């Protein structure tokens, strides 16, 4: 076995040993914080007892300090650092920095063009992402002599607008949403006319290099054929595709990797995934010995090594949260998180047969200064008829409830990166299992600015 692949599998196995006993914590629902007594049942005893002896400000302050300096050996510090130890980090082997990726490109004879900063027509976060990714995309595109860069799920087309006008690449934005594509195409024509001013490069945009196709991309989509249909002028030639995606949603990321693995006409893939909560995990109750079908077609897992392992939807939702951003901005959860849990406890006690469907109380928290106001609005929306029957003290938030909610939120948040790391490791291992050694995870963005900061790069 390839040494890097063995190292990756060992990393995954270590991560699984740590994460598996904690999946009940990862998969819990914050709405059930009080009704299921999460503080007592899901927080490890030693950690819980330590935190019970601390006031909220001291405990939160210690949490922020550990995030910044990583030196605290208290039970809370050990919890944070143990989770961090299992997370994806740059190692120069299968996880690279941007600088290390650039060196690999140079080693293969590639050339790195200058960055082209574009601030108009996109927000600062997107501008930052496009500036970094488009330059590397152009380098990879040229290095593999691609006929066309195709962005799966390109939406508004920001990435390929810069790649086509700034780096003169033939590009195709593919998306299933007709409205998004029409808007992107119209915007692209405006940008083309104004490119020399927008990019501050003095060059003009190139017409007809960036085109659009409405299509729902699956692992069976023949991208070479799609490119030829969109660019009839190269239909008579052999086509090599550079497949990319900036924040491809849910199963589109895994489908992109399967396209690369199965279609020799796809020369390279450069993908930044997101929306892990929309990944599919397929379970088939068919036979006693083979009841899992996730390795062939599902979003997770992709690798044979993880065949049979499931995360759960709430764990995948947790993986999309950003500990780095929360720590950098020192963000505590909104009090409405506790209000919703308190409402759930009241409903369970007084209306046990009532089913509250998701989404009915959106924005109620933002309108409420305290739980009493929250409950009155919720009571009216849900027609509970409880507002005049409950004693006043049942609408009061106890200090310990808020303390436990905040600390539970932060403790659970430490698992977010661990789960995301497992999802990304699984994708990388899938590629290596299929014989692709030039495959890497690359920490592409600052996680505070862009929480989904890792990309997958694979070269045929």
Q: Strand count, sense and closure of the main sheet? A: 8 strands, mixed
**Which percent band covers the strand fraction?**
5-15%
In round numbers, the mean pLDDT is: 90
Radius of gyration based on Cα positions: 25 Å
| Poorly predicted sequence stretches spanning 5 or more consecutive residues | 284-295
Order of helices and strands: HHHHHHEHHEHEHEHEHEHHHHHHEE
Number of helices: 18
- Quick one: how many beta strands? 8
Shape: globular
Largest sheet, spatial ordering of strands:
1-7-8-6-5-2-3-4
The percent of residues in helical segments reads 40-55%
**What is the rounded distance between the termini?**
19 Å
Structural class: alpha/beta
Describe the protein.
The chain is α/β, with parallel strands linked by helices and 460 residues long. The chain has 18 helices and 8 strands. Strands 1-7-8-6-5-2-3-4 form an 8-stranded mixed β-sheet, sandwiched between helices. Helix 13 crosses helix 18 and helix 15 (335-350) crosses helix 16 (371-382). It starts with a helix and ends with a strand. Residues 284-295 have low confidence and may be disordered.
């Amino acid at each position: 076995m390839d040494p890097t692949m063995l190292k990756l599998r060992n990393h995954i196995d270590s991560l699984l040993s740590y994460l598996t006993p904690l999946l009940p914590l990862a998969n819990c629902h914050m709405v059930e914080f009080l009704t299921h007594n999460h503080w007592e049942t899901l927080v490890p005893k030693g950690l819980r007892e330590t935190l019970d002896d601390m006031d909220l400000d001291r405990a939160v302050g210690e949490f922020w300090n550990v995030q910044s300096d990583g030196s605290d050996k208290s039970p809370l510090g050990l919890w944070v650092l143990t989770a961090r130890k299992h997370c994806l980090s740059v190692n120069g082997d299968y996880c690279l920095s941007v600088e290390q990726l650039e060196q690999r490109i140079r080693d293969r004879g590639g050339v790195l063009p200058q960055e082209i900063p574009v601030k108009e027509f996109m927000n600062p976060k997107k501008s930052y992402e496009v500036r970094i990714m488009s330059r590397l995309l152009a380098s990879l595109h040229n290095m593999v002599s691609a006929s066309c860069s195709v962005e799966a799920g390109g939406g508004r087309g920001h990435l390929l607008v810069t790649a086509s006008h700034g780096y003169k690449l033939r590009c195709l934005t593919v998306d299933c949403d007709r409205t998004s594509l029409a808007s992107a195409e119209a915007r692209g024509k405006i940008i083309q006319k104004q490119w020399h001013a927008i990019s501050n490069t003095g060059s003009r945009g190139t017409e007809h290099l960036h085109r659009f196709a409405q299509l729902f991309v699956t692992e069976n989509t023949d991208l070479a054929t799609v490119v030829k249909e969109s660019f009839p002028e190269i239909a008579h030639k052999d086509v090599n595709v550079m497949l990319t995606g900036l924040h491809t949603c849910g199963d589109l990321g895994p489908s992109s990797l399967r396209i690369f693995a199965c279609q020799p006409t796809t020369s390279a893939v450069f993908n930044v995934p997101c929306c892990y909560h929309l990944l599919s995990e397929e379970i088939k109750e068919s036979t006693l010995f083979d009841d899992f079908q996730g390795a062939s077609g599902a979003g997770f897992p992709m690798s044979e090594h993880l065949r049979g392992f499931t995360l759960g939807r709430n764990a995948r939702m947790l993986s999309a949260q950003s500990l780095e951003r929360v720590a950098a901005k020192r963000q505590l959860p909104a009090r409405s998180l506790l209000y919703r849990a308190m409402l759930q406890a009241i409903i369970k006690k007084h209306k046990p047969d009532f089913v509250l469907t998701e989404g009915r109380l959106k924005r109620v928290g933002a309108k409420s200064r305290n739980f009493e106001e929250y409950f009155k609005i919720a009571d009216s929306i849900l027609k509970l008829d409880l507002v005049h029957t409950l004693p006043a003290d049942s609408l009061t938030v106890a200090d310990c409830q808020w303390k436990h909610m905040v600390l539970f939120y932060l403790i659970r948040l430490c698992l977010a990166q661990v789960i995301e790391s497992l999802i990304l490791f699984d994708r990388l291992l899938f590629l290596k299992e299929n014989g692709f050694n030039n495959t890497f995870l690359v920490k592409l963005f600052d996680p505070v600015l862009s929480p989904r900061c890792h990309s997958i790069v694979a070269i045929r």
